[in-house]
Write a structure and sequence with these properties.
This protein is α/β, with parallel strands linked by helices. The protein is 40% helix and 16% strand. It is built from five helices and seven strands; from the N terminus they run βββαβαβαβαβα. The strands form two sheets. A five-stranded parallel sheet has the order 3-4-5-6-7. Strands 1-2 form a two-stranded antiparallel sheet. Strand 1 and strand 2 form a beta hairpin. Helix 1 crosses helix 2 and helix 2 packs parallel to helix 3. It starts with 8 loop residues before the first strand and ends with a helix.
Amino acid sequence: MERRKTRPVSVGAVTIGGDAPISVQSMTKTHTEEVDATVRQIEELAEMGCEIIRCAVPHRRAARALRRIAKDSPLPLIADIHFDPRLALQAIEAGVDGVRVNPGTISDMDGLKEVFRAAASAGTKVRVGVNSGSVRPRKGWEVTERGAGGDDLASLMVQEALKCCEIAEAEGC
């Protein structure tokens, strides 16, 4: 199978895409606000060959911890954001290398646009991640409704991700 041509993007010191080798990424299992435990787990994952790490940011306590984690992490740090775009803005301000947003869990589109603008301004990478449990037809997004066919959920996921990418590009991200 031929590898699809993509544009290289740097996340910290790690290049993703282009001709770069596939990078090993993982996610911490600790509560992000438990900074010492989280950094320790990141160090252990780095020793095992992990190259990029993602931490859940479910609330403000976790977002506040990111500044220290980003400073102490031996790996590029991605903040995993759901529901509240203000947490992504705090993560960007804390100096993370990237944020992962799920448009299916964020209903505040103005807030999401603000995240894209802030990320572009700070040079922070944005990953759009959509999963089957969070997609739904959105008013005004011109995505198809789910029907009886087996491909409808996959199609809806792709459409939601692409629409979110269009919005990100329109905001300079």
